[in-house]
Design brief:
Elements lengths: L2 E8 L2 E10 L4 H13 L4 E12 L1 H16 L3 E5 L3 H9 L2 H4 L5 H11 L12 E4 L4 E4 L2
Parallel strand pairs: 2-3, 3-4
Antiparallel strand pairs: 1-2, 5-6
Helix pairs in contact: 1-2
Length: about 140
């Protein structure tokens, strides 16, 4: 099945609606779109997975890389709408909550932490390290 990214830009927050299969053949399309948007000044990305029918480990890696790229620019990236196999994969890897929509208070605390202010342990975003075949989420 083909893969597509539909972009809906509204100010500094942009929604990317993914459709089809996110795998080795399609991750470059997603990441190129993310980097182009971040390069143009967009800071807040929301990735809608409603029409995504398949995702493999390279797709998960691309979602994490999109999130990390947004963080580097001082923004955030979240996902929603996963169903079926994609939702199962995100749940098993515990990335559903990690990549889920941040609460407004979390966005503020994260920005304070990013600016160098000390916040509580719970306010800091977790760090993700991807190994071969598994993902470990930890707080520093």
């Amino acid at each position: 099945m083909d893969f597509s990214v539909a972009v809906d830009a509204r100010g500094s927050e942009t929604t990317l609606a993914l459709a089809g299969e996110l795998d080795l053949a399609s991750t470059d399309t997603l990441l190129n779109t993310v980097h182009e948007l971040l390069g143009s000044g967009v800071r807040f990305l929301h990735i809608d997975l409603t029409d995504l029918t398949f995702c493999d480990s390279t797709g998960l890696s691309a979602l994490l890389r999109a999130r990390n790229a947004a963080r580097v620019t001082g923004g955030w990236c979240s996902i929603s709408g996963a169903a079926g196999m994609v939702a199962d994969l995100l749940r098993v890897t515990q990335l559903d909550e990690y990549l889920g929509e941040p609460a407004p208070a979390s966005r503020t605390n994260w920005r304070r932490c990013r600016a160098g202010e000390r916040t509580s342990f719970a306010d800091r975003p977790p760090q993700v390290s991807a190994g071969t075949g598994r993902v470990a989420v930890r707080h520093d």
